[in-house]
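User: For documentation purposes, I need each entry recorded in a consistent format: the amino acid sequence on its own, followed directly by the corresponding structure tokens. There are two entries in this batch. Please keep commentary to a minimum and don't merge the entries.

Assistant: Recorded as requested. Entry 1:
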Amino acid sequence: MSTATSAGRALPGDPPGGRRAVAVWGIGVSVYFVAVIFRTSLGVAGLDAADRFHVNASALSTFSILQLLVYAGMQIPVGLLVDRLGTEIGVVLFTAGQLGFAFSPSYGMALASRALLGCGDAMTFISVLRLGTRWFPARRGPMVAQLAGLVGMAGNLVSTLVLARLLHGIGWTAAFAGSAMAGAVVFVLLLLFLKDHPEGHEPEPLPHQGAAYVRRQIAMSWREPGTRLGLWVHFTTQFPAMVFLLLWGMPFLVEAQGLSRATAGTLLTLVVLSNMVVGLVYGQIIARHHAARLPLALGTVGVTAALWAATLAYPAEHAPMWLLVVLCTVLGACGPASMIGFDFARPANPPERQGTASGITNMGGFVASMTTLFAVGVLLDATGDDYGVAFSSVFVLQAVGLSQILRLRKRAALRERMRLVASRVETVHVPV
């Protein structure tokens, strides 16, 4: 008899999902929620950090670059070794980093604190993705991933709305130290309630993870065109919004566009709200129409580039408010589009390589963000704060990523079809 399945039916051995899955997964995403609050907290404090530590644009960008450098560099090790213990250590590290940033008396100590934060942050998202695959059926994968991204953006919303007000109300140290307490809360929840997998769905034991195993896992994941396509989709789609929210959005809107901090904060909030809405829409579309993955990703890249070009090339000194609103709304689609990268890597790799493949994919957007953060800072210093020239670096990174997506798309599609056919053959059982 045949047990082959379609996209809308459960696969053999799939986790059951249900309320228990939602509750356990909710604990995992609460950790990611707090990690994103800490990660994006500098985005509303960039101008204050420049004054506090007496640094220029290049030095200011180093905060975010170092944080993302550590984050990106940790992705493959975390993907290989991700487990519950890694999540617990991650919470301790990013909480310590946020607390250290609150009390840093010097630029050097503040840099070290952001690096520590980035290290802990790196251990959260891949853990949440893996937790979703352990507790929910495979057909729910795209929606679960998009919901995780949506919760992360809710953390960004807390930064732009709550932390920004605390910063200017109670001061730097009290605001950052107070926010660090959220890390202690999720750490307790993690210890008390997180469970790695449902009963009866224990993962197969992994082989000894020596150097040869590590090299083989990385090589085999990278060999899959779907993994590389996922990385480049993540690279090309995520960074415009990440750079805007993480550091340069507030200075751009205040210094280049002449807006008040309150108005600029509202526009940053619009990016986050747009992200949350678009994430739900993209998740539903991809779950129902798998072929929509690439058109959605390419469409997001194209519209984002067009809006950035229109804003930077606007003939007047300041772009009109309606154009800035549209730009921020479109930037909100960048995060959900980057999640599509995981939907290319996931079907390209077997369960034992999911962590490694997700880690490789997740590096893409953060490498692009680091590069752009650095380029914008250097160009601002070199041009006397010409934001038009500085933000033109966005187009260079988009062109690089787009060329790789177009190069890999057919190869990845062919390989995915071959794996799908092979899996259907394996699930057909003929009675003797």
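Entry 2:
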Amino acid sequence: MARAQRLAERMTLDLQDGCFDETLAKYGIIADLKLKGNAATSDDQLPPKPELSLMEVWDMYCEYRKQGLRESNYTIKFQGQYKNFLESAIEATKSEDAIKIRNWLVENRNLETVSRVLSNISKSYRLGMKNRLLTHNPFEGMAEEITTKGARGKTQDEIDVENDDDVLNKAKAYTWNEAQTILEYAKKKPHWFNPLKFKFLTGCRTGEVIALMWCDVEWDKERILIRRTYDSATKKFYPLKNDRTYKGEEVRKFPMPKDRELWNFLKLIPPGDPNEVVFKSMHGKMIDDSSFYYFWKGSKGTASKRASKGIISILIEQGKLTKYLSPYNTRHTFITHAVFDLGIDEKIVSKWCGHQIEVSNKYYQDVAIFAEKINPHEPQQQSKIDLLEQKLAEQQELINRLMQGKE
């Protein structure tokens, strides 16, 4: 058993390095196969290898990628969402034909994610070809052909955005009046109302809201610290910097002026121990982000659970909203409201929310000095913004003179 384990580990490494056949020859496996009665052909070659199924190719690729991915990304995306897309397409088409798989995905799933799925399944076939387990890649080039403008089967007012691209695009945000309409309806379910209102008031991501603890609420300094996120799939907390796609800081400082909206809102929530989360489920446990998503969008139902309508679908039916946006777009709503409605400088808002903008590192750091002193929920006079920019320009000019003096 020990020898077999060592051999298995060696073969796994060689499979990844593209020298699998050499390992088979080294340990006499190819020779053994040739000696079996009916295995050899007339020219003393091995018979053709059996074709791997699409999901076998995918599982091999996932195992190869596992060590290089963040645990939550591997669990949620590669073994969760992407795998589910492929399995659903195979079941629906009753086929593993690449074109049928691709067409079904385009017809029935979000195109941005479909493009990523097709890109990764293509890479999985390339890996198989590299290790001489496959002869061709039927998905080659399919991802590049996908455009994300829209898909048949989805209405154009269903915008499902899960990244910080175009955070100032008003089409990806609700108006502030629409946000209040959503919150007013959400009051019917208080355990969802509190985290939802916090998202609208701060622009935080769902994982950051779930991970907020009472020790992060600094009443004396009138601010909130955003320094971790929670992943419901792995049931673990992660520091913000643990996500390699995250470009912000390790700790964000969000202002909470005393006796103003955010301060008064958090004061209404019964406090807990410092290391307890602020927002809890109806049963007093950690919030599950998928349950929050069902509350927002609704669910189709299963054999054990009936279908339910989400609050956004209900409000659209009532004529109070005109489009569906994902829960992530509460973030876009806060950002566009702060910049366009309240006149807060975009550089300050980016400091609060942790998204990058094209400014110099020096200027970005200087803005941090002022960011904590501004109320995120009150209009800012343009003169104050002008004064801020003038002050920063004066500081930069002083630094330039000092540097010239040293030279």
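Summary note for entry 2:
The CA atoms of residues 42 and 278 lie 73 Å apart.
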